[in-house]
Write a structure and sequence with these properties.
The chain has helices at residues 3-9, 20-44, 62-69, 76-84, 86-89, 98-136, 149-166, 168-171, 176-194, 202-209, 214-237, 249-257, 265-296, 301-309, 316-319, 323-335, 370-374, 394-398, 435-452; strands spanning 48-50, 55-58, 74-75, 139-141, 144-148, 342-347, 351-352, 359-360, 365-368, 453-457, 465-468, 471-474, 479-484. It is α+β, with helices and mostly antiparallel strands and 487 residues long.
């Protein structure tokens, strides 16, 4: 029986007679060996994992994933509040309802992608400028530039995403842009510190770590009048028709919420800050892992370059017609999800699934072990081996004259597709609406690097990641060597 099937029938209740010391030891082990702990529980069929904050209950059945995603009494906000301390960070609360999620979908899935073809040339210029600026800070050794590629990729993708969210003028602002860069990091660090802080001290500690929410307050200071200006424009003309205005997410958010009383300008800005946090890490981490995999598997570089060079990348539509690159990035995501668990829901009341399923006690967090599922031999042939063309056809590989062996899945699939076996972006109604944008940015950055530079890892045997809780994080100390390609 496959591991994912064992989990369907072998949920163990959290009432085992373990001492407080044993539970605390298990919780500390999860801090330092979270991904390995989740995988071990998945394989053994044991679902309950004690942590320093909540018990985690692993859910892998497709039926159960669908059910608990929208179940009453299971809260996404409460789960992430425990991790990040969001009620200390949010200036205003936004209800997590279907109506509010539909706004996010309308903005991140529809408005953003509708405008990507227009923004594509501007994003391409921003990518080239940002990467050149980062390379100028590297250490030159002969013909090669040595630098931390995690830091470079993060800086480049931040500026590209900042352009889409806020526009060029705010990126150039010496007060706003540093605050925007710090914001998500401050929230993450504060959330981690608060998990070890006694409740009476949390407000004070949060104020110290975030400097009284300085980054958040700075972003609010700049964004509130911009939102008000856009709202005034809609009041006057019922449409923002000024073609001189560069499309940006602030504008789309105002348009999507116009006329809805619930959406005050404060809630609009708070929602934008939430999307900003979610847009940064996934893209940059996957790109770093992509460079890691190319460093470990340089045999893919020629095939990817041939495919890119056979296509004109002057238009966005051609970027989405690169099946080998799409498959390569999808395999990177399968092998390297930044979080070993996903789709978290905290039980605000006891919950049991309709077919009996697992019991989720009050305070426990139901979640899906995505890394373990995507590395399960029951789901993928040679699941622990990197196969960059796993998700495309042999014909696509042959089209560039590649000789690499291909063991594709039954049918080709795209990076942005979601399924019970591929959970990088979540699943069902929880699937990330910004995944299409993330795919675009990752392909832009990787095609630029592949066509413009030769590169190799400085030390291909050095550790490239570290783990904390369930997260697998690229090491900032890992370095790459780049030089302009000689044709």
């Amino acid at each position: 029986m496959a591991a994912r099937d064992r989990l369907k029938t072998s949920y163990l209740p959290p009432t085992r007679r373990t001492s407080a010391i044993q539970r605390w030891i298990s919780a500390l082990q999860f801090l330092f060996r979270g991904p390995a702990t989740v995988k071990a529980h998945y394989i053994s069929g044991e679902s309950y994992i004690p942590t320093t904050t909540n018990d985690y209950v692993l859910i892998s059945s497709e039926k159960h994933v669908k059910e608990f995603g929208g179940a009453q009494g299971l809260s996404r906000d409460a789960a992430y509040d425990d991790i990040l301390g969001l009620h200390y960070t949010k200036k205003v609360k936004i209800m997590d309802t279907n109506a509010q999620r539909s706004i996010r979908y309308r903005v991140l899935r529809k408005a953003l992608m509708l405008n990507i073809p227009t923004l594509y040339p501007v994003l391409s210029t921003k990518l080239a400028e940002s990467l050149a600026a980062e390379l100028a800070r590297g250490e030159t050794r002969g013909e090669w530039i040595h630098l931390s590629y995690s830091a470079v990729i993060t800086a480049v993708t931040l500026r590209m995403t900042g352009l889409v969210f806020f526009g060029d003028s705010l990126l150039a602002d010496p007060d706003f842009w540093p605050a925007a860069q710090r914001y998500s990091k401050e929230v993450a660090i504060s959330g981690e510190v608060l998990q070890f802080t006694p409740t009476p001290m949390k407000l004070l500690v949060h104020a110290i770590v975030t400097r009284r929410n300085h980054s958040r307050n700075t972003m609010f200071k700049y964004l509130l009048p911009i939102v008000q200006s856009y709202q005034n424009g809609l009041d006057a003309s019922h449409a923002l028709e000024d073609k001189q205005l560069q499309p940006n997410l602030v504008r789309w958010m105002v348009e999507a919420t116009y006329g809805k009383i619930y959406w005050t300008k404060e809630r609009i800005v708070q929602s934008i800050l939430g999307s900003w946090m979610g847009a940064i890490d996934t893209v940059s981490m996957l790109l770093v892992h992509a460079l890691n995999e190319l460093g470990s598997h340089p045999e893919y570089i020629d095939s990817l370059r041939k495919e890119i060079e056979q296509s004109s990348l002057l238009e966005y539509k051609n970027l989405e017609n690169l099946p080998l690159l799409d498959s390569f990035l999808k395999e990177v995501g399968r092998m390297n999800p930044s979080d070993s668990i996903s789709i978290r829901r905290k039980a605000l009341q006891p919950y049991r699934f309709s077919d009996g399923g697992p019991h989720i006690p009050v305070g426990a967090v139901a979640c899906v072990p995505v890394r373990a599922i995507m590395s399960d031999e029951a789901n993928y042939q040679n699941a622990t081996a990197f196969d960059g063309f796993r998700f495309t056809s042999a014909a696509a590989v042959a089209a560039v004259g590649a000789t690499l062996s291909v063991n594709p899945v039954t049918a080709s699939s795209r990076l942005t597709d979601v399924s019970p076996k591929y959970l990088l972006w979540g699943y069902g109604s929880d699937a990330c609406p910004g995944r299409f944008y993330a795919s675009c940015i990752m392909k832009m950055v990787l095609t630029h690097i592949l066509t413009k530079y030769d590169f190799k890892l400085v030390d291909d045997r050095a550790p490239r990641t570290w783990s904390w809780r369930s997260y697998v994080i690229p090491k900032y100390t890992a370095k790459v060597m780049l030089q302009e390609r000689k044709r």
